[in-house]
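In this supplementary section we document a worked example of the pipeline. Step one takes a protein sequence of length 206 as its only input; no multiple sequence alignment statistics are reported here. Step two produces a three-dimensional model, which step three serialises into structure tokens for compact storage. The input and output of this example are shown verbatim.
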Amino acid sequence: MSLKKAGLIVFLILLVDQCIKIYIKTHFHLNESIKVFGLDWFQIYFVENEGAAWGAQLPGEYGKIILSLFRLIIAPLIGYWLYKSVKDNAPKLLIISVSLIFAGAVGNIIDSLLYGVFFESSDNGNIANFLPGGGGYAKPLYGNVVDMLYFPFIKDATFPSWIPFIGGKTFTFFNAIFNIADMAISTGVGILLVFNKKVFPKTESA
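The serialised model returned by step three reads:
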């Protein structure tokens, strides 16, 4: 697989990811949701998170900057992995999976690096403006990641009473809210795990 084709995968994912995020950020109120095709289990639900993929967070005052700096360090390493995989004629499936992971990492880096600078805060109850006159809501690396894809397949169900500790409590499956970049990362990692023997073929010893 050529570097040009791998770059196209990365570009298309970033384009879709950022277009959707910018639209949601500038057209939705924070925590606003709509049902897609009237379906309860497929919603566009605008939230922002300060952490990693799927809303994970590092605690403490410096958790946000540590995570942002980690992204800036790890993304070039993944990019180099992608470049080297192409140059070494690695299996096509490996190149595709690394392209997905790299695109997802860069997609969320853009949010934390630039969104705080270029957008108003969505916490004030208003829909955020792009390039506000009074400046953005945060310094570079302190921006929040925009999430919007929500698939509550089972909502407000109750655990059976006989289950220890959680019996009688309500739950939602699947309650994570995520974005296209998160999907790309998860898909890429999933390919590496499921098709491990194909993406990392063993070389026969002489």
